[in-house]
Design goal:
single chain; about 200 residues; alpha+beta; Nucleoside Triphosphate Pyrophosphohydrolase; eight-stranded mixed sheet; three-stranded antiparallel sheet; 3 helices; about 35% strand
């Protein structure tokens, strides 16, 4: 794993965080869906943005995977016992918040009843990977008075950008088409690949 991100900040100097990337199949032959959250609009940081459930590592967490599972349980009521680990995606860094995010992918049952944290989460989104894959675009965003162009995914009125978009891009790259039937399957590595920077 590289020791520095694109802005040359060593990984060891960044704050470790983890997210869970929950996937489910709505039916035995259905297109995989991914679960994301929309943060409350009145939050101080990342208000109204779409993200994966997760956060910074707490001292009581036994591992970063434990962090991801704990945060998903706290934010959307996803029981740890309902998550079957599939693997990790590349580490993703953030500039403004100085995090290095460890994304863990897990398979969950379809039809779970979400219990959102009223403090953090406005809504839980269940989006088909096919629609996300087809919605990749470049768009102009304004944040804190600064306008810039960025890669993003736009499904209906849901705009996904930043670290979440980069994690999603890495997830979609792991989708592999089986030549015999044309179906896409998830091919994840046991060890996370190289760091993905902003």
């Amino acid at each position: 794993m590289p020791s520095a991100t694109d802005d040359q900040t060593p990984v060891a100097d960044r704050v470790p965080a983890a997210v869970l990337v929950p996937l489910f199949l709505p039916s035995s032959e259905g297109e995989p869906h991914v679960v994301l959250t929309r943060r409350r609009a009145d939050l101080r940081h990342h208000a109204g943005e779409i993200s994966f459930p997760g956060g910074r590592q707490d001292p009581g967490d036994s591992s970063l995977e434990d962090t991801a599972l704990r945060e998903a349980e706290e934010e959307i009521g996803l029981p740890r016992a309902s998550v079957s680990p599939l693997g990790e995606l590349p580490l993703t860094s953030t500039f403004v918040t100085n995090y290095v995010i460890h994304p863990f992918v897990g398979l969950i049952p379809a039809g779970l009843a979400w219990r959102v944290s009223p403090v953090e989460v406005d809504a839980v989104l269940e989006l088909p990977l096919r629609a996300l894959r087809e919605s990749r675009t470049r768009t102009r965003i304004e944040r804190r008075g600064i306008s810039f162009q960025t890669d993003a995914y736009v499904v209906d009125d849901h705009l996904i950008w930043g670290a979440t978009a980069r994690i999603l891009e890495n997830l979609l790259e792991q989708l592999c088409t089986k030549p015999e039937d044309g179906q896409r399957t998830l091919m994840l590595l046991a060890e996370p690949p190289a760091l993905s920077g902003e």
